[in-house]
Amino acid sequence: MIPDHPQERRLLIAEYVLGLHQGERVQEIERWLALDAEAARLAQHWREAWTGAAELLPEERLPPHLWRRVARQAGLAQPWWRAGWASASLWRTVSAALLVAVVLLAGPLRAPAPVYTVVLQAPGEAANPGWRVTVSDNGDLRLTPLVEGQYASDRSVQFWTLENNAPGPRSLGLVQPGRTLVIPASQVGGVESGQLFELTLEPQGGSPKDRPTGPVLFIGRAVEI
What we know:
Residues 94-216 form the Anti-sigma K factor RskA C-terminal domain. The protein has helices at residues 6-17, 23-35, 37-54, 64-74, 88-103, 185-188; strands at residues 116-121, 129-135, 141-145, 155-162, 170-175, 181-183, 196-203, 216-221, 223-224. By secondary structure, it is of the alpha+beta class.
């Protein structure tokens, strides 16, 4: 389902351009782009920004099979920048990192009030975003899964945030893997650029202390868009 909120639509297009969706979801987005001229224009804008960033990388010959995949996902008719990425692993890392960068290029579509996004990724795996956090202009937070996750029945996934210069992390509650979570502004509190968010694996019912006690599953920092 295509979201109604403008910020969520921009993020959805960014994820589509970066190849973070598959199967029927891709078909749904493409049907939407075919009918919505403004959405299609924004997708093209981000494709151009994306390919421009590729020119900053060292030139190396791209394997033919990888180029075909890149061209198909980016919608490029002619491979005029064949020598872009050195390897599939570098491609995945760059595409994940550019998610925030392309959102910053939205230009005239920016909201007047600060709005934030966070891409939560597994530690040390920048190419594998697991969750997306968006904070609307009224301060409400939405945590959206990008991957499926299953954990032992005697464990809980807990959501935390750490404000800049705060003495310690603060719990935002428990998360059901694979389910979207909406948290009202009154519970979220103020959000700042660079603020840390993370999901940890805790004992059933949550951490027994006022801080995380289990391993970090996904982590990321807020970026203003």
